[in-house]
Specification:
Strand 15, helix 12 and strand 16 form a beta-alpha-beta unit. The strands form 3 sheets. Strands 3, 5, 6, 7, 8, 15 and 16 form a 7-stranded mixed beta sheet that branches. This protein has 327 residues and is of the alpha/beta class. The chain is globular, with a radius of gyration of 20 Å. It folds into 2 domains: 177 residues, Medium-chain alcohol dehydrogenases, catalytic domain (Quinone Oxidoreductase, Chain A, domain 1, Alpha-Beta Complex), CATH 3.90.180.10; 126 residues, Rossmann fold.
């Protein structure tokens, strides 16, 4: 089978290599899955560069989420699972940038066999991040205000839809007018382009109300500036730092208004949450993707042989959607 791996850390377009491996065999309690699709996430590219929160031993296989069909089962697994389409829960050991992967049965959640595999493949990381950011840090009641930047990202798109389902109101910030126009055309509400008057624009949309949650993917000063519009005790959640700058929150907000800054990493939740909570959460998201309630734009999908083009395109700043491998 074909698979992607690295033998050294570095620039993704240079160090990722295609290798030919023997088909794996599932052991006790494992499934052999023929992959249908697997996305390329920013976290995957950070891992390749050696700057992610996890640093695997080399050589290292790649890909931490995807969807596929069960083609063989190991001992102790019901043979009836052969043929099921399964979502592979995120994990650096999943090795989903490959034609086949062996996974523990507990890491494979059965999903709709007729739904779009590209959309199903993206469930593991981005929509769960959006779901947990909205649910695990603040008790947001109906009509609460949530502001986010990088609203045109996959996480941003899922957050808008999940917030709408929960009865929350969102303000959605991007850095380019082109991105803003696309979001508005897709029905995303309250879209703003960041600039020197951003706080005033957000304040005008609030109409005298206060924010309940700031979701920051950029780093730098923007979230701290928006924190001025949070109600006392409000939260700032940082799940990325696309600018490479530290997240800055004014000391006056921390001390006098009890504003708090929290970092979010999906890996921590996957390691600590009860297994039933994890499985139920992914089943819920899979259902929403299966019926079309949740989706994210896909710019292109590539066969694994075209991995260099796929990785280079994914590593670009301006894209119209996610890049995936299709098998």
């Amino acid at each position: 089978m074909k698979a992607l791996q690295i033998a050294s850390f570095g620039k993704p377009s240079e160090v990722v290599e295609l290798v030919e491996l023997s088909d794996p065999t599932p052991a006790e309690g494992e499934l052999l899955v023929a992959l249908e699709a697997a996305p390329i996430n920013p976290s995957d590219l950070l891992l390749v560069r050696g700057t992610y929160g996890l640093r695997p031993a080399l050589p290292a296989r790649l890909g931490n989420e995807g969807v596929g069909r069960v083609v063989e089962v190991g001992g102790g697994v019901d043979p009836a699972r052969v043929g099921e389409r399964v979502l592979l829960l995120p994990g650096q050991e999943q090795n989903t940038w490959a034609e086949r992967a062996v996974v523990p049965e507990r890491d494979a959640v059965t999903v709709d066999g007729s739904a779009d595999p590209l959309q199903l493949a993206m469930i593991g990381v981005n929509p769960m991040t959006a779901r947990l950011v909205l649910s695990d840090y603040a008790e947001l009641k109906a009509d609460a205000w949530v502001v986010q930047n990088s609203a045109n990202s996959a996480v941003g798109r899922y957050l808008v839809d999940l917030a709408r389902l929960a009865g929350l109101r969102t303000i959605n910030i991007v850095r380019r007018e082109e991105a803003a126009e696309q979001l508005r055309a897709d029905g995303v509400p309250n879209v703003l382009v960041s600039g020197p008057d951003l706080v005033d624009q957000v304040g005008a949309l609030l109409g005298g109300e206060q924010l309940d949650l700031v979701v920051d993917a950029l780093g730098g000063e923007q979230a701290g500036q928006l924190a001025a519009l949070l109600r006392p005790g409000g939260k700032v959640i940082a799940y990325s730092a696309l600018t490479g700058q530290p997240h800055i929150l004014p000391i006056s907000a921390l001390i006098f208004r009890d504003i708090s800054l929290h970092g979010f990493w999906l890996h921590t939740w996957l390691e600590s949450a009860p297994r039933t909570e994890i499985e139920n959460g992914y089943r819920e998201l899979a259902g929403l993707v299966g019926d079309g309630t949740l989706s994210a734009p896909v710019e292109a999908s590539y066969p694994i042989d075209q991995f260099r083009e796929a990785i280079s395109r994914s590593d670009r700043f301006r894209r119209a959607g996610k890049i995936l491998f299709s098998f």
